[in-house]
Specification:
The chain is α+β, with helices and mostly antiparallel strands. The chain contains two helices and seven strands, in the order ββααβββββ. The protein has a five-stranded mixed sheet, covered by helices on one side. A two-stranded antiparallel ribbon has the order 2-5.
Length: 76
């Protein structure tokens, strides 16, 4: 099961998500992984580091566990 990453904005850019989810240590590492085609968004290779991601999107980075974006937590 993917780890859930909560965002409180409408979207997050791919490179920022990789850092937020601790899938990379730096923006440079994010740029390199994206450029090399090692990142998949919803099952498709993504090479745009500025790709906007929305709640529900699933991101897989190379050999790391997948993460799913979710919106702000709701109180029930």
């Amino acid at each position: 099961m993917p780890e859930l990453i909560v965002i409180d904005t409408d979207y997050i850019k791919l490179d920022s998500l990789l850092k937020l989810a601790n899938l990379v240590m730096s923006g440079g590492e994010a740029k390199l992984l994206i450029h090399e085609g090692q990142i998949q968004v919803n099952g498709q290779v993504e090479t745009r580091r500025g790709r906007k991601l929305y709640p529900g999107d699933l991101v897989q980075a190379a050999d790391r566990p997948p993460v799913r974006i979710t919106g702000q937590k709701q109180d029930h």
